[in-house]
Structures are given as C-alpha cells and as structure tokens.
Design brief:
- With 312 residues, the chain is an alpha/beta fold.
C-alpha cells in the first residue's frame, strides 16, 4: 500500500517550501515519490516552483480538490498506487477542508491500495487575527487532524510571538468544542536548521481523527481566485503595487498573490505574497501568470492594479 502524506496549511503558510525540503529528504532515502499539487485557480504556480525537485508531479488546477477536483484527486491516488510509488505527497490549496481528505481516503477503491501516512499542518509563526470566520474554520479543520504542526518563519519572530501564536491556536480549537491542545507535537525549529533526524521524526508523525461539528462551505462562492497577466514598470514599482493590493481594503480582502510578473524592460520576477509579508526575486521562468486569491474582491480595481500585458 502506498502511504499518502497530506501537507496542509492556510494560504501563504509555506507548504510548498516545506514540501521541497521533505521531498529532498525522502529522495535521499531512495523513496520513489509523487507530488499531487492542487491550486485554487486556473494555473498551478506551485507546480512550476516544484518542477526542479526531480520527482513526478500531478496537477489539479481550476478549483479546490475537495469540490470540483475531488474525482481527479481520487484518480491520481489510484494511478499513483498503480505506478508503485513509495509515498505520495499531497499539497492542497490553502482553503482546504481536511474532512474531505478523509472522505476520499476511507472509501473504495482508494482504501484498498492507499493509506494515510502523516498529516502536517504548516502555520505562520505569527497568528493573523484578521482572518475571516470561514478562514478560521479551515485552519481549525487542518489543525485538528494533524499529527504534527510545523511553524514557519520562526526565525523572524520572538519566542513570545511564537508562544502567543500557539496560545491562539489552542484557543481556536477550544472555541469549537474540541479538547486537543498542541504542545509537544509542534516544531518551532527554523527550517534552515532542520536535520535528517528531524525529517525522520516527521515521517512518524501520523494523524488524528477527532469528533467535531462539521461545516460545509462552497469555497468558490466564498473565496475568489483570479489569474492575471499584468506587468509593472520595474522592481520598485512592483513592490508598491503589491503593497497596495495587500493593504488597500477597497480592493477587498487579498489573502495571497503568487506567480511571475514581467516589467516593461523584459525583466522577470517571482512574487509570493501573503498576510505575513511578501518577497520578490528575479526569475528565470518566463511564465507571465500570477494568481490573486481573496474574499470580496473588487474585480475592476484588481484588473487596473497592473499595467496591461504587452500586445504581440
């Protein structure tokens, strides 16, 4: 039976970065792995980023795999089992309800050839109090089922901030009537310091199934994903445009921006923005698409936020 690991976490928490490190460890242990990548949008930016990892990647784009992509996800698991992978790593979109993962894993024919290995939840070291009720429920679903919570960006924050985040996470779970408390099952070690011994312990993290009141939501009607192909004038101009998108409430609640953007001189940049911050770096990939994900987005204002794509 092929083991299936779910690496979950809300938008921008660092799932793709963690998968790159985890996949590298597994490959050095001579494990044959497949990554199933789901993007809540029309193009999978993370698949482009993971392409140089040297392992097989399957993509589900155009919607969340717990909604429109559920059958595709099931078929990919069956195909992975047939191909003889040792482990399948699943990266859902950041707005994934983990109960839907169990729905697929525990039904035939999947359960006859696949078994859950581990569920990891990646969480920003600084908790964002401005998240909507829907976003907090999704975080709750992800946290409740995880065998290990792995905090990202801990090197950027104080121990007091990290402990405050842990306190708020435990409060989030308690507010929904569940008794789980995170303590020893949390990794706060900076990721650059993670060793093979750490990843070996992650392989044994497992998962949990806990009774809770389940909420059903139509992600497509609550969260919006828009694929864009605009440009900027230069790196300074790009930074200013991204800052406005993430901070201007008149545009709606922007939760995530990621992808590749060109400037008017032909230089390309990889952008990765979340509520916790953003980075811009030069990119060799000339894939002029980026995704904006949020709630109550002002579509017209969003389209006007970047220079139009150059006509051929």
């Amino acid at each position: 039976m092929v083991k299936v690991d779910l690496i979950t976490g809300f938008l921008g928490s660092g799932k793709t970065t963690f998968i790159r490190r985890y996949a590298d460890y597994l490959q050095r242990q001579e494990k044959k792995i497949n990554i199933i990548e789901n993007e809540f949008g029309g193009v999978s930016v993370d698949s482009i980023i993971l392409r140089d990892q040297g392992c097989d990647i399957s993509q589900i784009a155009g919607g969340c795999m717990c909604c429109t992509g559920k059958i595709s996800f099931q078929n990919m698991l069956l195909d992975g089992a047939a191909r003889g992978y040792d482990r399948i790593l699943v990266e859902p979109s950041g707005i994934y309800d983990v109960d839907e993962f169990f729905d697929v894993m525990f039904t035939e024919p999947v359960k006859s050839c696949c078994e859950i290995g581990n569920i990891f939840t990646i969480v920003d070291a600084r908790f964002d109090d401005s998240l909507s009720d829907e976003a907090k429920y999704l975080m709750f679903s992800q946290l409740l089922s995880s065998g290990k919570m792995i905090m990202s960006k801990t090197q950027l924050f104080s121990e007091d901030t990290i402990q405050e985040t842990l306190k708020k996470i435990n409060e989030l779970i308690a507010q929904r009537g569940c008794s789980r408390i995170f303590s020893d099952d949390v990794c706060t070690k900076p990721w650059d310091a993670l060793t093979d011994e750490d990843f070996a312990s992650f392989e044994q993290a497992g998962y949990r199934i806990s009774d809770h009141e389940r909420e059903f939501m139509q992600h497509g009607s609550i969260f919006t994903a828009r694929v864009m192909a605009g440009r900027c004038e230069n790196e300074k101009d790009l930074k200013e445009r991204l800052e406005r998108l993430m901070n201007d409430s008149s545009l709606g609640k922007i939760l995530r921006i990621k992808g590749h953007i060109a400037d008017t001189s032909g230089h390309w940049y990889e952008v990765n923005c979340s509520l916790d911050g953003f980075y811009i770096k030069p990119a060799a990939i000339k894939k002029g698409l980026f995704i904006v994900i949020g709630q109550d987005i002002n579509e017209t204002a969003l389209q006007e936020s970047f220079l139009p794509r150059q006509k051929k």
